[in-house]
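Hi support team,

I've been running sequence recovery on a batch of backbones for a student project. Most finish fine, but this one hangs at about 90% for roughly twenty minutes before it completes. I'm not sure whether the input is malformed or the queue is just slow. I've pasted the C-alpha cells below so you can try to reproduce it. Let me know if you need the job ID as well.

Thanks,
M.K.
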C-alpha cells in the first residue's frame, strides 16, 4: 500500500474533542474492501466513542456507523463484490461465524461482534475498510446522503417493525419523532399499519401526517397510553426517545400481546409494573439494528416505497457541530457528514 493520507475525524481519548486529522489511508485485509465514503450519518450511539462509555474502546478511534459510499479497492480474497459498487455499512461490522449465537445464525448477537466506529474505525473519514460480510448494496435510486441514515436509524426501525407480531391493519405506535422516529412512522405507514405518532407539543404534528401517520398524540396534553387504548391498543410500539419515564408510562397502551420494542437507550433503568405486563400478555423487548443483509432489505424497501430520511448535511470539519445538534435534538432529523 502507498503511504497516502486521508482526512478523518477522530477521538483521541474518552471524553476528548473531535479532531480533524490527516491519517494514513487504512490498509486492506484480504477479506475486506476499501470504501470511498460519500456520506456518514451521525447517530446518538456515536456518543459511546466520544465519551468512552462502551467497554474497551481503543483510541484514537474514528466514529461513524451509518456509512454510504463506493468500493474503491477489493481485497484479494473477496469474490462477491467489485470495484465501483455502491455499498453501505452499519453498526454491525463483524461476526465470528463460530460462537453459539453465530452457529444459530444470530450474527447480530455474536459474542465477538465488532461494532463499526467503536471496535473498528468508522465513517467519519474519506475512506474506511469493511469486511465483505458487513456490506449492504445500495439501490441506484437512493443517493448516498439519504442512504447513510438508513444503515442504522432505518434498519433499526424497519427491522423492529417487521420482526414484531404486528401485521397490516394493526395499530403501530412510534414514540418520539426524531432521527429514528420519523423513519419509523414512514415504515409503519408503508407497511399498512394504522400508524400513531407520539411526540411532545404540536410542532411536529403536520410533519407526522406528511410521513404517513394516521393519528398524532401530543403527550403534553393527553396520556398516550389512554389515547392508544381508545384505538384498541398498540400491537407494536417503537420507543425511540431515550426517556425511561416515557417508556414506563406507555406500557398500559399496548394491545393484547402488544410488544414494546425499545430502540432508544435511556441512561437510567426503567421500572415497569409486572401487572401491566401480565394484563394483555404484553411484552417488552430490546432490539438491535440488523445485519448487513437486513440493512440491504431496508435500503431496498425504502427505494421501493420512496422512503428517505430528512437530513442536514455537514462537512468533516463540522463534525463537532453536527454531533452537538444531534445530541441536543436540534437536527431535523438526521445529521449527515459529507467528506
Ligand atoms: Zn446508530
Ligand atoms: Zn460469533
Amino acid at each position: 500500500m502507498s503511504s497516502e493520507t486521508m482526512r478523518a475525524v477522530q477521538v483521541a481519548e474518552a471524553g476528548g474533542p473531535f479532531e480533524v486529522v490527516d491519517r494514513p489511508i487504512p490498509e486492506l485485509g484480504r477479506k475486506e474492501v476499501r470504501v470511498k465514503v460519500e456520506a456518514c450519518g451521525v447517530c446518538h450511539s456515536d456518543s459511546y466513542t466520544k465519551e468512552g462509555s462502551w467497554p474497551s474502546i481503543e483510541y484514537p478511534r474514528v466514529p461513524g456507523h451509518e456509512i454510504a459510499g463506493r468500493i474503491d479497492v477489493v481485497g484479494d480474497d473477496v469474490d462477491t463484490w467489485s470495484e465501483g459498487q455502491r455499498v453501505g455499512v452499519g453498526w454491525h461490522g463483524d461476526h465470528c461465524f463460530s460462537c453459539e449465537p453465530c452457529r444459530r445464525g444470530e450474527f447480530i448477537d455474536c459474542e465477538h461482534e465488532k461494532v463499526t466506529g467503536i471496535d473498528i474505525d468508522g465513517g467519519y473519514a474519506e475512506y474506511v475498510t469493511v469486511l465483505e460480510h458487513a456490506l449492504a448494496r445500495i439501490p441506484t435510486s437512493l443517493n448516498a446522503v439519504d442512504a447513510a441514515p438508513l444503515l442504522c436509524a432505518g434498519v433499526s426501525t424497519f427491522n423492529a417493525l417487521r420482526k414484531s407480531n404486528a401485521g397490516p391493519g394493526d395499530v403501530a405506535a412510534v414514540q418520539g419523532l426524531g432521527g429514528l422516529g420519523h423513519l419509523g412512522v414512514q415504515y409503519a405507514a408503508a407497511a399498512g399499519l394504522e400508524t400513531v405518532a407520539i411526540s411532545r407539543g404540536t410542532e411536529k404534528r403536520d410533519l407526522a401526517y406528511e410521513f404517513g401517520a394516521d393519528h398524532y398524540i401530543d403527550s403534553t396534553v393527553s396520556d398516550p397510553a389512554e389515547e392508544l387504548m381508545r384505538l384498541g391498543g398498540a400491537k407494536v410500539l417503537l420507543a425511540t426517545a431515550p426517556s425511561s419515564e416515557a417508556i414506563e408510562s406507555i406500557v398500559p397502551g399496548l394491545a393484547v400481546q402488544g410488544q414494546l420494542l425499545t430502540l432508544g437507550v435511556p441512561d437510567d433503568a426503567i421500572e415497569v409494573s409486572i401487572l401491566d405486563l401480565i394484563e394483555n400478555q404484553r411484552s417488552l423487548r430490546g432490539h438491535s439494528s440488523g445485519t448487513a443483509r437486513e440493512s440491504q432489505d431496508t435500503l431496498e424497501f425504502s427505494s421501493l416505497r420512496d422512503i428517505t430520511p430528512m437530513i442536514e448535511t455537514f462537512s468533516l470539519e463540522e463534525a463537532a457541530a453536527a454531533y452537538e445538534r444531534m445530541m441536543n435534538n436540534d437536527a431535523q432529523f438526521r445529521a449527515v457528514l459529507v467528506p
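--
Follow-up from support: It reproduced on our side and the slowdown came from queue contention, not your input. The two ends are 22 Å apart (CA to CA). No action needed from you.
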